[in-house]
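re: ur question from earlier - yeah i can do the single chain one, its not a big deal. heres the input i used so u can compare w yours
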Amino acid sequence: MGIATKATGWRARIAVLGIVLGAVAAVAGCGEVDQPALPRLTPAEEQAAKGAVFAYRTDAELAVVRGAETMRAPGSFGYSSAAVTFTRDGQYAFAVETSSKTLVALGVRDRSVTRIPCDCTDAVALRGSVVGWWREPGEIMSMDLAGTEPAAPEREIVLPDSPSPLSGGAWDGAKLVAATDEFVLLARVESRGLWWEKSHLYAIGADVILPLGRVPGIDAGLSAAAGPDGHTFVLAGTTARSATCGSGNVATIDAATNGVRALPTLPGECSAAYSPRWSADGSITIATRKWADAAGAPSMVDRLQSAAQGWAPVGEYPVVDMLPRAQESTIEVVAGEPTDARGTPHGVLVVHKGDAREELAKQVISLGAPTTTN
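and the output i got, formated as tokens:
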């Protein structure tokens, strides 16, 4: 079989499988869904809704900002530094609770809150309002947040052997880390327990499962984002040297060819890289932490952008997160006091528009924005 190249990509298989799997959809899993019809906005609400749409997350709340309105959904997101994700149509923001392994989604227009017991740690936007996640021993699960059907298996997967041999560990689950029209990127984790971890990648297309293997330097805490071309991804992760120190690394991978390009090494004795973004203009940014390998050493946080000579800060001062500039606004989470090396970075959410500066929230961990304008 060849690599999926049609515009519909890996989704071509799904239309056929949907007929076969429909009979088991009712027992495959469910979410607590409250999906009223989209409300008609009043003139005042229409005016308030004008402006950038984005989302932010604290350890206890997922929130969507739409113009002058902020919608909130409580959640126990804990220590996770993962970015907030939007569905492909931009109508829902979602994040996964680390303790309960429950996906929490918040509607941009209808203000609905959906909680899906997914038994997952990560989820991705597949198409439209559909989100997906991995379920052991080998299924891609999905649910349409705009519909009324419960979560159901979308495709059964038998992962082939990784081209990178096991390094003394054992398989310890898998997760979906990014998706495009052509491929879903999956990371299968090899572990010996505690801090030791290796990630083996697979690209799942319409008619093929490509075992990509390990990417040098991208071992533990792997996160990914899709590039503009639909088949290349940016990866961030860490190679651990001990339980307290490792080095953060970033690379791009072409799922169609398994071509890997390593980006410059991050500065710092100990470092971590996570939450990558690859903008339509080709720029790559990552969240970073660096610290000294000493007891009680503080962690310095910033978001960096790939530059000709390595990495450069995205702003004039350290930020926990910053979104690409939109509608003449700059949206950023300003870093506070240095945290413990094991702590989750957080800061104050600030929106700059012209000369105006507005603080919207505190203890903010991550941001997200839709890739489409709604």
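The longest helix spans residues 12-21. not sure if urs matches, ping me
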